[in-house]
Design goal:
Elements (H helix, E strand, L loop, with lengths): L2 H13 L3 E6 L8 H4 L3 E8 L8 H12 L7 E9 L1 H7 L2
Parallel strand pairs: 2-3
Antiparallel strand pairs: 1-2
């Protein structure tokens, strides 16, 4: 399973998102120190009811928890946009 598919599986299982987009930006960081060790760079947009009444930091922690040890190995950088369904509708819908 590739890294994007693995990230998607983990986030869907843990947070049941209504909308999820994952972009692998690793190629844009070729030669970067983190990329040299095999860690990838990813951008994630995740819309989940689970984020209701959570601060941005709590939302990030929930995503990091869902990805577990990968945050210290196969994922070097993770750019997150975490929204509730209402925030998604207001800003992007």
């Amino acid at each position: 399973m590739d890294r994007v598919a693995w990230i998607e599986t983990q986030l869907r299982a843990a947070l049941a998102p209504a909308h999820l987009v994952i972009a692998d930006e690793s190629a844009q960081h070729a030669g970067h120190a983190g990329a040299a060790s095999g860690g990838g760079h990813f951008r994630v947009l995740i819309v989940a009811e689970a984020f209701r009444n959570q601060s941005p930091v709590a939302r990030q922690r929930a995503v990091y928890a869902a990805l577990g040890d990968a945050m210290r190995s196969t994922i070097h950088a993770l750019a997150l946009r975490t929204l509730t369904p209402e925030e998604w509708e207001k800003h992007c819908g």
